[in-house]
Amino acid sequence: MNEVNSTEAAAAIEALLFVTDSPLSTERLKEILQVDDAVLSEAIAALDERCSRPGSGIEIQRVAGGLLLATRPHLSGYVEKLVRTRPTALSQAAFETLAIIAYRQPVTRTEIDAIRGVKSDSAINTLLERNMIKEVGRKQVIGRPMLYGTTREFLKHFGLNSVEELPEVRVDESGD
Amino acid sequence: MLRPVQALPVKVDVFEGPLDLLLHLIEDNEIDIYDIPIARITGQYLAYLRAMEELDLEIASEFLVMAATLMEIKTRMLLPKTVTVGEEAGEADPRKELVDMLLEYKRLKQAAGELKRLAEDRSKRVFRVAASPVLGQERQLDLGDIRLFDLATRFKMILSKAKPVISEIARESFSVRQKMRYILRQVSGLAKAGALTFTRLVSSAISRREVVVTFLALLELARRRRVRVEQEGLFGEVRIYAAGAAPEATGTEG
């Protein structure tokens, strides 16, 4: 293994992220840079630090298990003038259905319907079409119903590294 | 019954479902979710359904099921508590199941809200959309000192040697007029009130063109009211009926 110091590695990572648009995993980075974990994380930290200075317009985002370059949020006003960034809106029904699937995965249609109190077929179909959810298997009960879970696209859409990063939901149960 | 032609300005499904409506009523009334005054809530819930009915809106079955559930709970709460001796004593609050569902639903709404907020946050960042050079290994081809002119000459030579591809195209022998006659013959052969489907009509077609011509013929016949055409819905099967009084002879007018 040749000696790649973290400064060089940071520069290389920046370059690699510049040419890719799907999350680059740390495994892949290590493979390309031929560095060990310590150097890699040092390099990423250095890059992070450099990008978070006031003069920087981009930042490193951890998405779907990898790294991606993203514009910094406070610049969205400018960026929006150039590109449309509004996420294509999901209906309330789709959001509710997606929330159940995200927090409870894997779940079946029936389980989703039970929580929402209504049929969720069309919402599920929309989410499948939008590649936000996928079929992840079948539940081992009578009828072997399909189980649904979220996709990488879902993580990317919501800027999450993994489903563990979903915000905690706490309900004030005192009955406001 | 007269139905309003235009879509009502009132959006009915502002409530995603019965639980959504119930939660709205509970929050509106500032009610303790653990101690729901069932009679009051049931009354309001039914009033809402009645309003929907008056607006001539279709009430989803889920809403009706919930109405029944509410009334059942209300009845059970009106019954005197029978304290049976033994393990059945201390029967659970009849509202318990409903409360659990409502809490779960409330949690869900919160979660949906969190997701919305995330998407909102996320939209403030734009991920790099690389107009990437082709990723991965690309093999270099050593062209030596071949010039563009050499390539062009070689290409021309290859082209001149290449055998022309000959394919035979069968002459299509049908016209709109012919197809019209054909359709009329088919339709007149039908039993009374019988229908011919378009699929059937073109089942023996040999080309896309023939299908189109058949369709044009059908349109023309429909326009001349020689046949009656029905379709159940978008992309549904087209059914063709003999027009009531029309004679079955071939078209001469028009």
What would your notes on this structure say?
Chain A has 176 residues and is of the alpha+beta class. Chain A has eight helices and five strands. The longest helix of chain A is centred in the N-terminal third of the chain and has 15 residues. Chain A starts with 5 loop residues before the first helix and ends in a 19-residue tail after the last helix. With 254 residues, chain B is mainly α. Helices cover 47% and strands 5% of the residues of chain B. A three-stranded antiparallel sheet of chain B has the order 1-3-2. In chain B, a hairpin with a 6-residue loop joins β2 and β3. In chain B, α1 packs across α4 and α6 packs across α8. The radius of gyration of chain B is 36 Å and the shape is flat. Chains A and B meet through α1, β1, β2 and α5 of A and α1 and α4 of B.
Any descriptors?
heterodimer; A: 176 residues; alpha+beta; three-stranded antiparallel sheet; two-stranded antiparallel sheet; elongated; B: three-stranded antiparallel sheet; 3 strands
Concise summary:
The complex is a heterodimer of chains A (176) and B (254). Chain A is an alpha+beta fold.
Helix/strand layout:
The complex is a heterodimer of chains A (176) and B (254).
Chain A (H helix, E strand, L loop, with lengths): L5 H14 L6 H8 L3 H15 L6 E6 L2 E6 L4 H7 L9 H13 L2 E2 H8 L4 H9 L3 E6 L7 E5 L1 H6 L19
Antiparallel strand pairs in A: 1-2, 3-5, 4-5
Chain B lengths: L17 H11 L9 H17 L6 H18 L17 H27 L25 H14 L14 H13 L7 E2 H4 L6 H16 L3 E5 L6 E5 L12
Antiparallel strand pairs in B: 1-3, 2-3
Helix pairs in contact in B: 1-4, 2-3, 6-8
